């Protein structure tokens, strides 16, 4: 005998949840057309995720100003949603609108699912991008236990490498490598090895730098820091000897 049960329709909250996660999944696959459709459905349901999904789709399509404008509207309608402020800060930072990015990340402290730790880390990244390494490290020193430790170390290592403090960066990377025994992505692992390659190059260990850079590229062909090391080594080798 087969038992049958009456079909129970999904609640509005369940439908919103399904749509939101589906939207994030199609964005990962680069399907922006479907993402826009899902964003429209979320908008009809008056959910803040509509702004996030639409803005991220616009960003992937290269419409950077449109993405920022969408998030500007989103934070006006839903100022309590930290994730909207976070994406706004990220996009503004990528456009080198650093002061605005810092203000956006600062707002993530107060919102739903926001935290001081992530705000301080993101603001440190903005100062790093702006070339203010001292200020970046000051904010990174304020980070509490909220972000994963290996993320904070990764940011610190990047700042130290770019400011030419190679020995300090090497010590940070040693701790980072010990923490990466936990499961991390190939891209995270490749970035760590790339940073190590930059440290070795900065300390004058060219052969070791080349070995590490090639290892990083094998893990992630887009490892920009490793590619930079290989380019610098190639350019140095092609210069005429005097």
Question: Which properties best describe this structure?
Answer:
242 residues, Serine Threonine Protein Phosphatase 5, Tetratricopeptide repeat
Secondary-structure element order, N to C: HHHHHHHHHHHHH
Q: Pick out the low-confidence regions.
A: none
Q: Name the helicity range.
A: over 70%
Overall, the morphology is globular
In the CATH hierarchy, the third-tier topology of the domain at 148-242 is known as Serine Threonine Protein Phosphatase 5, Tetratricopeptide repeat
Overview of the molecule:
The protein is mainly α and 242 residues long. It has a domain at 148-242: Tetratricopeptide repeat domain (Serine Threonine Protein Phosphatase 5, Tetratricopeptide repeat). It has helices at 12-28, 32-44, 49-60, 64-77, 82-94, 98-107, 116-129, 133-141, 149-162, 166-179, 186-202, 206-219, 224-238. The mean pLDDT is 92.
Topology:
Blueprint: H1 12-28, H2 32-44, H3 49-60, H4 64-77, H5 82-94, H6 98-107, H7 116-129, H8 133-141, H9 149-162, H10 166-179, H11 186-202, H12 206-219, H13 224-238
Sum this structure up briefly:
With 242 residues, the chain is mainly alpha-helical.
């Amino acid at each position: 005998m087969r038992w049958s049960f009456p079909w129970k329709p999904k609640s509005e909250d369940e439908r919103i949840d399904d749509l939101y996660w589906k939207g994030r999944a199609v964005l990962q696959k680069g399907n922006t057309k479907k993402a826009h459709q899902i964003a429209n459905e979320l908008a009809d349901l008056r959910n803040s995720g509509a702004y996030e999904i639409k803005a991220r789709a616009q960003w992937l399509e290269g419409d950077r100003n449109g993405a920022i404008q969408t998030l500007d509207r989103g934070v006006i309608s839903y100022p309590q949603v930290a994730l909207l402020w976070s994406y706004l800060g990220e996009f503004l930072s990528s456009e080198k609108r650093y002061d605005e990015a810092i203000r956006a990340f600062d707002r993530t402290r107060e919102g739903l699912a926001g935290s001081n730790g992530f705000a301080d880390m993101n603001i440190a990244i903005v100062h790093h991008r702006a070339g203010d390494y001292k200020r970046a490290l000051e904010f990174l020193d304020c980070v509490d236990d909220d972000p994963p430790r290996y993320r904070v170390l990764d940011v610190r290592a990047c700042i130290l490498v770019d400011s030419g403090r190679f020995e300090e960066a090497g010590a940070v990377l040693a701790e980072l490598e010990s923490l990466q025994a936990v499961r991390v992505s190939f891209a995270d692992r490749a970035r760590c090895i790339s940073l190590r390659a930059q440290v070795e190059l900065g300390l004058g260990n060219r052969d070791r730098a080349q070995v590490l850079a090639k290892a990083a590229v094998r893990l992630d062909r887009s490892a920009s820091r490793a590619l930079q090391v290989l380019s610098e080594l190639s350019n140095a080798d092609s210069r005429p000897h005097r």
